[in-house]
Amino acid sequence: MTTVAAYAAPAAKAPLERTTIERRAVGEFDVLIDVKFAGICHSDIHQVREGWGRANFPMVPGHEIAGVVSEVGPGVTRYAVGDRVGVGCMVDSCRVCDNCKAGLQQYCTNGATMTYNGIGKDGEPTYGGYSQKIVVDENYVVRVPDGLALDEAAPLLCAGITTYSPLNHWNAGPGKKVAVVGLGGLGHVGVKIAHALGAEVTVLSQSLRKKDDGLKLGADHYYATGDPQTFEDLKGTFDIILNTVSAPLDFTAYLSLLRTDGAMVNVGIPEEPVNILLSSVFGNRRTLSSSSIGGIPETQEMLDFCAEHGLGAEIELISADQINEAYERVLASDVRYRFVIDTATI
Ligand SMILES: [Zn+2]
Ligand SMILES: [Zn+2]
Hints:
CATH topology of the largest domain: Quinone Oxidoreductase, Chain A, domain 1
Order of helices and strands: EEEHEEEHEEEHHEHEHEHEHEHEHEHE
Distance between the termini: 19 Å
Bound molecules: zinc ion
Number of strands: 17
Family: Belongs to the zinc-containing alcohol dehydrogenase family.
Domain Enoyl reductase (ER): 14-341
Catalytic activity: a primary alcohol + NADP(+) = an aldehyde + NADPH + H(+)
Structural class: alpha/beta
CATH superfamily of the largest domain: Medium-chain alcohol dehydrogenases, catalytic domain
CATH class of the largest domain: Alpha Beta
Number of domains: 2
EC number: 1.1.1.2
InterPro entries: ADH-like_C, ADH-like_N, ADH_Zn_CS, CAD-like, ER, GroES-like_sf, NAD(P)-bd_dom_sf
């Protein structure tokens, strides 16, 4: 066991504070990672505040982890000391179900082990990346290619794969029209990735406040959803709508923007049930779907793709004592576009 400095929420809705946690000894197939940077994901806030139901405390959030391998177990073959690596939302899964065998560990039918607010196979609670070190089985670690800066790579481990996986699955690419709803932590990466995939990209945001940013990030068009005319002008336009907003939307209105066989994929998950009129999917064989992060092989593919395209997250680097303030700013949509904690400051 190693004692490690971390930032934790001691109880639901409590501010995060500096503490120490124990990391397990490095096992046969484990790597010890010196965490360098950890992104702040909106879902960290949902979980600290129990927006998604009962959670485990103390909680050390953080599932956008980038760092450097500092020790490997004797059975480790894929990584060596000094390698630049990342860890996303999962640190284990059953490995034997059909989904695990297919590399879709995020849909493990026996339940993947989440990076934090989960229980590991050793029965101990899992603690995330707001900490200086983490021990992870090598099969749940990905490589950060040399072309990517570690701080800009960290948010790709959740925001990147969460947007890449559905864009990939629903075949975003040349000749396809993709709308990204919301230009926040997820949305800004989604715009970059959809653009790099070769799609024609439209941002649908409440106002035109971030229009210049959106166009710079790679969007071809930018519309305000606060203007009802947008829904008239864009009726039947898109092959894919990637919704990154976790507040409930008027799904019926958004679905009307899809062309025949178009898909609206929701990666922002509201805390409450939503209402839709099924007639809004019925008429044009539209799909309303959702997607959860991505498997380990696809996460590696995403990082390689981002490195090839020189694509990282737009970040605001903060010190650990700014985490609570950063949470408030995320809730107020006052971040461009992802807070990343410099874990040396913990
Ligand atoms: Zn996340
Ligand atoms: Zn499984």
